[in-house]
Design a protein that fits this description.
Strands 1, 2, 3, 4, 5 and 6 form a 6-stranded mixed β-sheet that branches. Helix 6 runs antiparallel to helix 12 and helix 9 runs antiparallel to helix 10. The chain has about 375 residues and is α/β, with parallel strands linked by helices.
Length: about 375
Amino acid sequence: MRVKSYWIGVYGQVRALQKRFMRDGTSLFFTFLFPLIFLLVFGAIFNNQTTSFDVAIINHSQSEFAKQFVEQAKANKDTTLKVKDVKDMQEAREKLKHSELSGIIELPADFGTVTPAQAGAPGQGSAAGQTQARPSGTLRVLYAKGSEQSGNTLTAIMGQIIDGINKGMGQPEPPLKVAGQAVGDEQLKTFDYTFTGLLAFSLLSMGIFGLANQMPTEKQKGSYRRLRASPFTAGQLILAMGIHYTIVSLLSAAMMLVVGMSVFHFNMRGDWLLAVPFLTLSALLMVGFGLLIGGWAKNENQSAPLGNLVAFPMMFLSGTFFPSFMFPEWLRTLSQFIPMTPVTDGLRLIMTEHASLGEVLPYAGAVGLWMLVVYIAAIKLFRWE
């Protein structure tokens, strides 16, 4: 009976919070429209196509010509093609999949091998029937499926470079050729990668910046003091507010998804049956941080700096706005201990890489563990006034 009364109290508080929220126009604006402003700004920036190409060169050939080709390509300061260093083909394909590369230039084992060929007609510096050595082979341009326009452009650029080499050798029939091929899964657009970070940011913004400032205001009004006079516990209040604000966060996230998919053509590759529970778990965690900060702080002078102290490292060190592969090694290691990191990484794995349940479980486990710690701390440290 006591358990039933406990949850009846929680339900009643959730309903009261929902009614107050729907009557507050300012809260509605900042909850639903403010995150969309970020989405529209970042969408306009990252949805544009770039005019330069970041490429990796994978050389399987041991020929002198192939080695010179790679050296000259890396030394070339042409802004159209930028050669990035990779260890092997596996790393190159992984970077291609994550839009870190526009394409892969592959030199097969026979590329640049010297084969005899008939020289030109007499009078061109050689006698008829004389043979001369020339390098031959077919250079391959690999690009991601779904990026045919970018791949064809890159193939055409490499074709022009190879044609120039052929003409320099004075060959009537080009011994060096270029072939383009789409490989792997469909490449992520820059916006697809950024959008998942914006989605994680909206959860953080709703959870921390909203609650951390609102709860001290309610304390100063005496709202919680009146609740304390009734048979209502701190645990009930924390759970009620956690449920209410998680629902609001999910509604805000749903609106962002609708706009992202309809306006910016975000490609949802993952399973919704996996994405929705993980999104809910993540929203609960972010709301928990807001409850912890707002529940402990006596006033806004305490909650505002503490909220910034918690939120800013999570925003900038979890890969929300800046991909973690850009971090130095020591900072990348540190980011693994940021509570927001499994949220951001988990959402990206599900929504952009079609991750399976087994692949997502470690991230869900990390989020669940952080959530347990945060809610226990929020209940224990809560101050009524």
